[in-house]
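Give me the fold.
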Amino acid sequence: LAGPSASAMANTCAGCHGTHGQSVGPASPNLAGMSEVYFTDSMKGFTEGTRPATIMDRIAKGYTDEQIEQMGAFFAKMPVYKANVPHDAAKAKAGAAIYDKGCAKCHDDNGALPDDDAGILAGQWLPWMQFSMADFQSGHREMPKKMKKQVEKLNDDEIESVLHFFASQK
């Protein structure tokens, strides 16, 4: 038995991450266009307990490594989806300068380039990004060293502005 197809498995994600990985819920990220490496690393983090989750830690454990890789390839073939996220335009404008100075090296193309394997932030839901940043800042989720160096230079208002910048991307 070959098991379920990548499409069938990915369709089970739609309840939270939207049809074709296009999330409509503010606490669930878009998966469409995410790099296979980032998807696979995220799912392995959930299964190993190194990436915090509300429910994904339990869901991810239901899949084999091969199935996770198949789903990663499935979402990676899709175009990047940027949700129409409500955001504060003034904060987004301030966040653009902060992005250019400290975030652009890893989160290329205004956070929309899948190939940088840093996760797509452009057009992601603001609450999800805020929850993720809180996990990073609290130490609940390990922050990459390069990111930590940049984040530590910013105050809370500047971080919030960068998140609004990413949310504003179309």
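The chain has a mean pLDDT of 94.
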